[in-house]
Write a structure and sequence with these properties.
Alpha-Beta Plaits, about 20% strand
Length: about 210
């Protein structure tokens, strides 16, 4: 079995079939209090049923932790950004607002921010997170770089995202077409159509699925 440090999470939007298996399995992780830390987003809901799983991207410099006034959010030595610690979390929602990926959720019943921690009780000892262990289509894969290159020869992992002038690198990888020229995804550039005069909104995930 590969050591935990060599294991990575890969999200492949093209492969999501919307079965919700990951959502159900996530709630069964021992540390999640019966609550799912993953959800599915529609890529272009008015025109398609295509979905994509949304998990924490585990940023190298996590904005959620940087804006927490109570120092409740910690990143482990292996790069996993943990759910807020109950004794410290003051339920201020700063992390919910600040996360560029829209991941943290405030669980009102617990007065606690909870989010994907890659099922840390499992992944820290080399086991797959619950979502990756049940995904039937491979939209969520937990393994090594060598494994994903063999499994997805027409795709490549991307872990750098731009939000305007800010560049964010992540522990979790997004799979994009191998011929895609970009080294990173500029989220803000994808928010509006190139025809600025029309101002029609577009969708980052839709562009990725189209291989643009």
């Amino acid at each position: 079995m590969p050591v935990p440090e060599s294991m990575e999470m890969f999200v492949d939007p093209n492969r999501c079939i919307g079965c919700q298996s990951c959502v159900q399995a996530c709630s069964e992780c021992d540390t999640h209090k019966g609550i799912s830390m993953i959800h599915l987003e529609y890529v272009d809901r008015p025109h398609s049923v295509q979905t994509v799983p949304v998990i924490c991207m585990h940023c190298d410099s996590p904005t959620c932790a940087e804006v927490c006034p109570a120092d409740a959010i910690k990143k482990s030595d292996d790069g996993v950004v943990q759910t807020a610690r109950k004794p410290r979390c003051i339920a201020c929602n700063n992390c919910v607002i600040a996360c560029p990926f829209g991941v943290p959720k405030m669980q009102v019943e617990f007065q606690l921010m909870m989010k994907c921690d890659l099922c840390y009780d499992r992944s820290s000892v080399g086991l797959k997170p619950m979502c990756a262990s049940v995904c039937p289509s491979g939209a969520l894969h937990y393994g090594t770089r060598d494994e994903i290159e063999k499994l997805r020869p027409r795709s490549k992992p991307l872990s750098e995202f731009r939000f305007g002038e800010q560049t964010i690198t992540t522990k979790v990888n997004m799979m994009v077409p191998r011929e895609a020229p970009q080294l990173s995804i500029d989220v803000t550039d994808s928010m509006f159509d190139e025809a600025v005069g029309r101002g029609e909104p577009t969708n980052l995930l839709e562009d990725m699925l189209d291989g643009e």
